[in-house]
Amino acid sequence: MSASPAFKIEPGSPQSWREAFLSMKPNVVPCPGLTVQNWQGVHAAALNFLDKYADEAGRLGWTTLGLFGVHPELGVIRSDFCGALVLSSDLVSKVEPDFIRFERTRYFRAVPGRPHGAVPIWAVKR
Predict the structure, then answer these.
(1) What gap in Å lies between CA 50 and CA 55, rounded to an integer?
(2) In which band, very low, low, confident or very high, does the pLDDT at 12 lie, cut at 50, 70 and 90?
(3) DSSP 27
(4) Residue 7 and which of 24, 106, 118, 121 are 20 to 30 A apart at CA?
(5) Distance between CA 63 and CA 107 in Å, rounded?
(6) For residue range 26-70, what is the model confidence (pLDDT) as tens digits?
(7) Is the full-model pTM beyond 0.70?
(8) Is 75 exposed, middle or buried (0-12, 13-18, 19+ CB in 10 A)?
(9) 92 by DSSP, 3-state: which?
(10) For residues 88 and 99, what is the distance between their CA atoms, to the nearest angstrom?
C-alpha cells in the first residue's frame, strides 16, 4: 500500500477523515478480514456517512479510531478493535453522543474492555 495520508486521532476532524478515506480505492481491500465485495459495501456506506453525518460526528466528539479503527495487523478479523464504520455496509441513520444507529443495529462508543492499539483503516500496512 502507498504512503498513508496524514490523519488526526482526536475528535472533530471530519475533513481529515474525508481526505484520508477518499484516497482509498473501493476495489483494493485495505486490511485482512475483508473481501473485495465486503470492502466495496463498507466503502460505499462510509462515503455515505462522510457526506451526511461526519460533521455531526465530529461535533459530538467521535474520533478517527472510534469510526475507522481496525487492528493494525489483523484488520477487521479482530472486531473488538474495530470502529463503527468498518464492520458492515449498513447505512448510518443517526449519530448520537454515545452511539451510532445503523439500519439494523447500533454501535456504542464506550464498551468496557475494548482494547487499545487500533489504527485507522487507511494506515494498515499491507
Answers:
(1) 8
(2) low
(3) T
(4) 106
(5) 14
(6) 999 999 999 999 999 999 999 999 999 999 999 999 999 999 999
(7) yes
(8) buried
(9) strand
(10) 15
Calculate Rg over the CA atoms of the chain. 13
Phi, psi (rounded to 5 degrees) for 102: -110, 180
Q: What is the pLDDT of residues 112-124, one digit of tens each?
A: 777 888 999 999 9
Look up residue 33 and give its three cell numbers: 478480514
The cell numbers describing 81, all together, are 478493535
C-alpha–C-alpha distance, residues 75 and 82, integer Å: 8
- With a CB cutoff of 8 Å and minimum separation 6, the contacts of 99 are 106, 107, 108, 109
Taking the C-alpha atoms of residue 15 and residue 9, their distance in angstroms, rounded to an integer, is 12
d(CA 77, CA 56): 28
Contact of 122 with 23, CB cutoff 8 Å: yes
- Locate 109 and state its grid cell: 462508543
* Bridging pattern class, strands 69-70 and 119-120: antiparallel
The three-state secondary structure class of 120 is strand
